Amino acid sequence: MFSTGQIAEMVFGDNAAQAALELTVARKQQIDLDMQVTRRDRIPLDVVEQINDTALGNVAGLLKSHRGKALDDTLINDIFTELRGVGAAIKVAS
């Protein structure tokens, strides 16, 4: 079995040390990401996407229901309330 350094030297020749360093950095980044997911520091993208789609769908519905009408303060406040609720919904989902 070959070590990382030996493989890098065979593949990259003179740039073996740099390649081994980049591989080590990439492995550390992957481990850090895995730890964030395990600790639930990162929210899965599909959950965020679903919450965003719901909120934007609600905003689209509000705007469509007022098509051809002036945007009044109530509608604008409803739209901003919907958009502000995204952060809270993501916290609850995580």
Can you give a write-up of this model?
There is one protein chain. The protein is mostly helical and 94 residues long. The protein has 2 domains: 4-39; 45-93, no CATH class. It has 4 helices and no strands. The chain has helices at 4-12, 16-39, 45-65, 73-93. Helix 1 (4-12) crosses helix 2 (16-39) and helix 3 runs antiparallel to helix 4. The two termini are 42 Å apart. The mean pLDDT is 86.
Give a brief description.
The protein has 94 residues and is mainly alpha-helical.
Q: SSE layout and pairings?
A:
Layout: H1 4-12, H2 16-39, H3 45-65, H4 73-93
Helix pairs in contact: 1-2, 3-4
Q: Would you identify the regions where 5 or more consecutive residues have pLDDT less than 50?
A: none
Distance between the termini: 42 Å
Helix share bin: over 70%
Oligomer: single chain
Query: In what range is the share of β-strand residues?
Result: under 5%
Radius of gyration: 24 Å
Q: What global shape is seen? A: elongated
**Rounded mean pLDDT score:** 86
The count of β-strands is 0
* Integer tally of domains: 2
SSE sequence, one letter per element: HHHH
